């Protein structure tokens, strides 16, 4: 594997790209699930297009090596893992489809299950079917002839590269549009004159609520989410769209829950069991909602769905500087008091009623199916990234 | 880093940003830990300290970092060569300079000045700085302010914290005087906390500081017109972070003032205290510790640029009236100045105060650390006994081993450390390969590499134990001991002349400088193997050269290997009753040590007060120097003035006098009488009116330089009057004439104004005869009346105000 690594890293800029990405991660300059996802996907696209890989197994090894490097830099960032898995899945899927084309001829025999995820979103236009994609323009027979005359590995690399880059580009486009597409589902979940509680700052939730408010009248209550006070920002953003907004302290969440019709939360990541990694304060809100039997709707793009299971609550959490809770300058207290300031809460799946992604709402129990479509066996491939 | 296009940072893009890193600290506060390695390669949370600094500089967009090292420079060079900073994938270049002859921080910087690699503003920090900040914004603010205030040479980064804060340097107390609206630093007063200073010395020019008037249209400061600053802040709650942004002028100033040793005490203090240099220093004060913006804002910012700090840079207000106007006051920055700070910073990193800089962010490519409840950081290869307790603020390095029934808390274990059963490690730092035997207790100490603590040993707080030492079994090591594998120099020759000359060579009045640098210490060991008594105890830990080693087995136990460093104080205390500088020194060193706390300061102060109540004058090594330099200064000054009278150009002389003033820290009020007296002495009394005219005309520049304001003019007249009235060389009958002529000539030469003469005259009339000679007053009466009348014609109010003065 080391020799492969040498080969593929021979291009000059790639290590630079990876290192600068890693240092950005370490310096905390890349925060927020969307940013991380976009940057990771772009980095992987660069790697696929620039590195001189010869066949799919070597590309897979390379991507896994890069994924490992990124995860070591930021082991808590589930999004990186998700994106790496997804790209591995795309690679794997194309590979098998090319294999099918090469070996069995007509692609109609191949089942479309492998490309299920993309076809679910994009319908028939997906180019996942290897050489049969519209872009080549040539009759399939010609492609077959060419493939037979050329060395298979070269052919694979030659065709697959552009194919893969196209696929990853589609994935990046999909990432970009995620919020808008989720917001399109808003009317199915939000009804007229509802009182909605949310917390923290989430671009997905903001777009979702704005979309709903453009059609019906809603009232939004925002929990401010100390100590970051992201809720203030969220309230401002919502108020700018003429939504009726009330900001409450986090402690008032339970008291106000009896008046709330629906809780809408954003998430940093959705774990394989349907549990959430969400802004700290979300667990309190979800628990209060359960007590009052209020529906909890979670808006999260597909890229946030992680194949990981939460074996340990702490594993996916990030503890940031406690400065916001207890000022660092307070000499005696910081010596004697342990302060921790977790950025996220783990919300168990039983407190979540509906997960909304761009295709619509799902029950948390349906998550296994989405994961299968998104990652298939790639998650097994990627599994050993974590295990060293 | 990719260059960012923003209005504020454009200025900084003109030239590449460089950084000067002082990789040697020129003191021995970490000895004997740093005997085999430069201090900046010692591990802090299992990462060599230099890595934090380089990472901080790289994150700040520095294009080239220049490391200055001295002791163990070859090891530092070797380390840098194999580190990630030498790979092509890092945008920051790291260059290393070896300053072999440097004896102090300022010396090392002079070397940099000679090599002329610095041509633009640069970041100056020690090689032991831990920070999560991106300084590029502050550099931009510094440069923006420079375009307004051309005299700005430095921006210091300071942290605000309560005085009980663990990062506070307990060995001295600093008072910063700051003009709050521009955050300009007016003065720094640093005094050692032992013995406790009773008062704070505040220079008057700081309190009645004249704020330069800002020309609103031109945008820069007009130095001629000044207004008094409405407020100044005196702050004792600031910690030096050892990070500053400097202009290249700083280096040339250091070269000019070759006597400067320490950056803060010498350079900053004296530059500010001097009223000759118009250089200004600004302070940027940090209040928070987190550097990361909230998730959503940074997401919005990163949508366009990858740098999260752009909005903060954008917040630069260029239209403000001067001063550093960098919006972000949040960020962690601290320098490892001593072992107490080492402890504090380690705890900050473990407590995640410097997020995203924490052990599990894995600053170097080693085995990854992961976070567990109670701030326990583990690598995957750690072995923990089933019954062991590792519960609170601990870092466990790769392959470290904690046995059953052992307890480890508030500590850092390096790679391959072993803690055996029934032992307790609390608040301690174990470097790679250290081991603690069964039933031993290690309390708030630092154990070097491969140190072996055998069974039933108690290490009390504040001990520093050097590499390869073996201690035990069954002993107790007293608090604040220092133990090394090699025999220490100072304890070997306590009664020897060698020692005396050694202590004289270094500056005794200066705590931090009182001992030589790490490297020099070792060099001394090598240089004088004979003088340091190889016969008594196998010199320098090499059995082959010195036969069988005799270790301090009495204190270190039967199997002990190593030497206890005897405090100079203990060696001397038999000889002298009062507190010697050495003892004070060692007490101050204890305050620098890990495990020391505020109570120690109080205690030591109380002891000192009790023991030394009468001998207060003992601790004034400076006063003699001041007295001495005073006489020397006057002598030099007189010589210089005479050269003017002999025809040398006054310009040159004024420059010379300026230089004297800087070195002797004299003020204008002391120079004026000397200048005037000398000039008056030179007047030939026989040919009075003409000789006075020519002599005074020759020296007009010189006199004028010392006399500006009305008060100074009045003072000058008094000096002349005293000279005329009391100088024995003047004959009695010419006294009146001389006085009148001199005053008239000076009036004609525009040195004295009519207002000053009138008000001096009016004031003198009220004084008793002893202070002012009536005779002389009479001679000048006509002249004063004449001036008075002409003044009356101009403005009648003026007389009232002037007579009131």
Automatic annotation (TrEMBL), chain A:
UniProt GO molecular function: guanyl-nucleotide exchange factor activity; translation initiation factor activity
Keyword Cytoplasm: yes
One Gene Ontology cellular component annotation held by this UniProt entry: eukaryotic translation initiation factor 2B complex
Positions with biased composition (Low complexity): 113-124
Annotated family: Belongs to the eIF-2B alpha/beta/delta subunits family.
Protein name per its UniProtKB record: Translation initiation factor eIF2B subunit beta
UniProt-listed PANTHER family: TRANSLATION INITIATION FACTOR EIF-2B SUBUNIT BETA (PTHR45859:SF1)
Location, primary (coarse class): cytoplasm
Organism: Coemansia pectinata
Pfam families: IF-2B
UniProt keywords, alphabetically: Cytoplasm, Initiation factor, Protein biosynthesis
Lineage, uppermost ranks: Eukaryota, Fungi, Fungi incertae sedis, Zoopagomycota, Kickxellomycotina
Stored InterPro entries: eIF2B_beta_subunit, IF-2B-related, IF_2B-like_C, NagB/RpiA_transferase-like
UniProt KW Calcium keyword: no
Record localization: Cytoplasm, Cytosol
Assembly and interaction partners: Component of the translation initiation factor 2B (eIF2B) complex which is a heterodecamer of two sets of five different subunits: alpha, beta, gamma, delta and epsilon. Subunits alpha, beta and delta comprise a regulatory subcomplex and subunits epsilon and gamma comprise a catalytic subcomplex. Within the complex, the hexameric regulatory complex resides at the center, with the two heterodimeric catalytic subcomplexes bound on opposite sides.
Gene3D superfamilies, alphabetized: Translation initiation factor eif-2b, domain 2 (3.40.50.10470)
UniProt feature, compositional bias: Polar residues: 136-146
Ranges where the record places region Disordered: 101-146
Automatic annotation (TrEMBL), chain B:
GO molecular function: guanyl-nucleotide exchange factor activity; transferase activity; translation initiation factor activity; translation initiation factor binding
Coiled-coil stretches: none
Keywords: Cytoplasm, Initiation factor, Protein biosynthesis, Transferase
Entry-linked SMART domains: eIF5C
Acidic residues composition-biased segments: 505-518
InterPro entries: ARM-type_fold, eIF-2B_epsilon_N, eIF2B_epsilon, Hexapep_transf_CS, LbH_EIF2B3/5, NTP_transferase_dom, Nucleotide-diphossugar_trans, Trimer_LpxA-like_sf
Protein name per UniProt: Translation initiation factor eIF2B subunit epsilon
Gene that specifies this protein: GCD6
